[in-house]
């Protein structure tokens, strides 16, 4: 005999809605607050992803649906091949690729405009524990990026992994003020792309 009894159920009403999670990191911060207060912890929040062969429109729809401005580009979970941001989708990058290749915008895919993994920079998760929001902002400005990855070193149980993301938009929400970040080209490839 089964010791468990089934729970009572009800039919769903026509006006039923899905509960919306409240932001877990909506606490106000200052530039002197711990940087960890503005990090999205990927061990607690599922990373938003897309594939390199996804269309730009599909990537944009995923960002809208997930409520994010950045997607990890993965060829197979959990391996990352790059990042794509809303700036990549809406900025000059797609138009430069269209002009250079002589194709239509709707023929472009995520791989055409993403920032590949080898051009990304990250800070160490353990270092973040003693860093301030002001230092995170200074790092975003140094690299001219809107997102900063946080990497956790390998342990006996886990391989090195991207543990978190610090985004300019999240810091602005929690600070209650805008942060100016000027995009910077860091490689000859990025400089060449900016000149095309």
| Rg, nearest Å | 20 Å
Main CATH class? Alpha Beta
Q: How can the largest sheet be summarized?
A: 4 strands, mixed
Helix content range = 25-40%
Low-confidence stretches: none
Secondary structure class reads: alpha/beta
Give the DSSP E fraction (strand runs of 2 or more residues): 15-25%
Number of helices: 8
Going by CATH, the homologous superfamily would be CBS-domain
User: Which architecture per CATH?
Assistant: Roll
CATH fold type: CBS-domain
Query: What's the total count of β strands?
Result: 8
Strand order of the largest sheet: 1-8-7-6
Q: Short summary of the structure?
A:
The chain has helices at 56-66, 86-90, 93-101, 110-113, 125-128, 133-143, 168-175, 188-195; strands at 39-41, 49-50, 70-76, 79-85, 115-116, 122-124, 147-152, 161-167. The radius of gyration is 20 Å and the shape is globular. The protein has a single domain (35-195), classed as Roll (CBS-domain), CATH 3.10.580.
Helix-strand blueprint:
Elements (H helix, E strand, L loop, with lengths): L38 E3 L7 E2 L5 H11 L3 E7 L2 E7 H5 L2 H9 L8 H4 L1 E2 L5 E3 H4 L4 H11 L3 E6 L8 E7 H8 L12 H8 L1
Parallel strand pairs: 2-3, 6-7
Antiparallel strand pairs: 1-8, 3-4, 4-5, 7-8
What would you say this structure looks like, in words?
The chain is of the alpha/beta class. The chain has a single domain, classed as Roll (CBS-domain). Helices cover 31% and strands 19% of the residues. It contains eight helices and eight strands; from the N terminus they run ββαββαααββααββαα. It has a four-stranded mixed sheet. The termini are far apart.
């Amino acid at each position: 005999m089964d010791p468990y009894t089934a729970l009572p159920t009800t039919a769903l009403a026509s006006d039923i809605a899905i509960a919306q999670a409240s932001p877990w990191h909506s606490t106000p911060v200052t530039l002197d607050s711990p940087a960890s207060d503005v990090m999205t912890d990927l061990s607690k929040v599922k990373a938003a992803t897309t594939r390199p062969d996804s269309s730009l429109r599909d990537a944009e729809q995923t960002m809208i649906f997930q409520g994010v401005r950045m997607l990890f580009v993965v060829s197979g979970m959990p391996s990352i091949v790059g990042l794509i941001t809303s700036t990549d989708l809406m900025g000059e990058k797609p138009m430069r690729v269209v002009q250079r290749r002589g194709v239509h915008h709707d023929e472009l895919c995520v791989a055409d405009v993403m920032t590949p993994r080898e051009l990304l920079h990250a800070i160490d998760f353990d270092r973040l524990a003693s860093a301030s929001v002001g230092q995170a902002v200074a790092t975003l400005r140094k690299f001219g990026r809107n997102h900063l990855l946080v990497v956790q070193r390998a342990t006996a149980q886990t391989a090195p992994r991207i543990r978190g993301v610090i985004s300019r938009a999240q810091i602005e929400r929690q600070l209650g003020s805008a942060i100016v970040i000027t995009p910077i080209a860091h490689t000859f490839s990025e400089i060449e792309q900016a000149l095309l």
